[in-house]
């Protein structure tokens, strides 16, 4: 009998990462990756207490060694299992400042996570997704989703590091969708077009009314919707914004 497939979320925090983990945990064991254990310990406990299965692993997606070690732990925890879905949700700190003041470190840090991290994560997880694509008992096609931002389609002034690294992440998603779609892996990029309403982040755009902030549970619902699409109707790009967003 095939081992139960797992789902891995790279970049778990209280917002999108946690919502996606909770949604996919209704159907699969989930692996939560973040650098800080504080980002996943309570969440894993919550999912396990509610009858799901979650494990958290401290990992930095921008480090090849760290990701290799995380995937070794995953293989140990779920021997022989495939991956039903993988979500790349990590991003470096947002830098908005005049271009001439952007430091090399700030620029590189955006690329380290959104471009190199997305590349490393994809290389590690795709073999598990490809195995799932060949499993005739799989309920849905394996899914690899990249959380993106407006900056992946629209480069605005003063956000050069964020925009260029997001364009790169989107380009990676498109390239992988074309390479691995024919092999049965559904790759999608999500444009999260607006601020996310992150629980517990009262400081975060606190003056914005709720209707101007995107509900992360709804993002998770949309990701689940992508996951359950059949091979005869893959959506490879999706825009998510509030009804009042100017775009
Ligand atoms: N927040 C917004 O308003 C907004 C708007 C549009 C798009 N987005 C996109 O949404 C995604 C993030 O979702 P979210 O904002 O709701 O955040 P979230 O899911 O609450 O948290 C993301 C998590 O990523 C982890 N992370 C960052 N760098 C990492 C690394 N190098 N390795 C492993 N994990 C890492 C962080 O934990 P550690 O620091 O402990 O690693 C953080 O907790 C990003 O792609 C972002 O560009 C966000």
UniProtKB/TrEMBL annotation:
Q: Which InterPro entries does this entry report, sorted A to Z?
A: NAD(P)-bd_dom_sf, SDR_fam
Pfam families, A to Z: adh_short
Q: Which SUPFAM superfamilies match?
A: NAD(P)-binding Rossmann-fold domains
Protein's name according to its UniProt entry? NAD(P)-binding protein
Q: What is the lineage of its organism?
A: Eukaryota, Fungi, Dikarya, Ascomycota, Pezizomycotina
């Amino acid at each position: 009998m095939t081992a139960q497939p797992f789902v891995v979320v790279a970049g778990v925090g209280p917002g999108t990462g946690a919502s996606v983990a909770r949604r996919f945990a209704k159907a699969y064991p989930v692996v939560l990756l973040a650098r800080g254990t504080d980002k996943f310990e309570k969440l894993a406990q919550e999912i396990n207490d509610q009858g799901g299965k979650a494990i958290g692993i401290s990992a930095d997606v921008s480090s090849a060694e760290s990701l290799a070690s995380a995937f070794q732990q995953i293989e140990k925890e779920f021997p022989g299992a495939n991956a039903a879905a993988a979500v790349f949700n990590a991003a470096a700190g947002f830098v908005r400042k005049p271009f001439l003041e952007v430091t090399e470190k700030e620029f590189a840090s955006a690329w380290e996570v959104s471009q190199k991290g997305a590349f490393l994560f994809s290389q590690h997880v795709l073999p598990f997704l490809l195995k799932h694509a060949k499993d005739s008992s799989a309920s849905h096609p394996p899914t690899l989703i990249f959380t993106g931002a407006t900056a992946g389609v629209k480069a605005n002034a003063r956000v050069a590091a964020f925009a260029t690294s997001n364009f790169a992440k989107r380009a990676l998603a498109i390239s992988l969708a074309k390479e691995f779609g024919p092999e049965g892996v559904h790759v999608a990029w999500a444009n999260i077009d607006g601020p996310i309403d992150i629980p517990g982040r009262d400081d975060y755009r606190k003056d914005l009314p709720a209707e101007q902030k995107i509900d992360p549970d709804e993002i998770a619902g949309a990701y689940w919707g992508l996951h359950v699409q059949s091979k005869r109707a893959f959506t490879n790009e999706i825009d998510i914004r509030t009804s009042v967003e100017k775009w």
